[in-house]
Amino acid sequence: FATRKMDGQKVVIKIRFKPNCFRTREDERSWRHNTEFLLNMPENLGVAKLYEVLEDSKAFYVVMEKVNGMDLFESLEQEGKVSVDFTKDAMRQLLTSLAHLHSHNAVHKDLKLENVMV
């Protein structure tokens, strides 16, 4: 992760290297459109905020909110078994976050245990 100089905010920077990050120009156009949409989507506590996307000749730099805690994969790996209450709470939060995305006609294209923070 990194720290934004302007406000000290902890952020995650995902890097998409050029020129092979898109198969076609249409893929790039679609990604740019979706990214612009996400930049303007209303905030929700259960969805990491996309702050900005920077671009240079080598890559795109996607700057996102750093969410504290551990991901669900790590949690399950460490704990082994989890309680019914933990499961209910995690599912409630996940489904609420997905409902927020869907209510704005957005989908999560990489939903996996490693991308769910608990």
Give an overview of the whole structure.
It contains three helices and four strands, in the order ββαββαα. It has helices at residues 25-39, 72-79, 84-103, and strands spanning 2-3, 10-17, 50-55, 59-65. The longest helix is centred in the C-terminal third of the chain and has 20 residues, at 84-103. A hairpin with a 3-residue loop joins strand 3 (50-55) and strand 4 (59-65). It has a four-stranded antiparallel sheet with strand order 1-2-4-3, covered by helices on one side. The mean pLDDT is 93. Helices cover 36% and strands 19% of the residues. The chain has two domains: 1-67, Phosphorylase Kinase, domain 1, CATH 3.30.200; 69-118. It is globular. With 118 residues, the protein is of the alpha+beta class. Pfam families: Pkinase. It comes from Strombidinopsis acuminata. Keywords: ATP-binding, Nucleotide-binding.
Offer a concise description of the structure.
The chain has 118 residues and is α+β, with helices and mostly antiparallel strands. It is built from three helices and four strands, in the order ββαββαα.
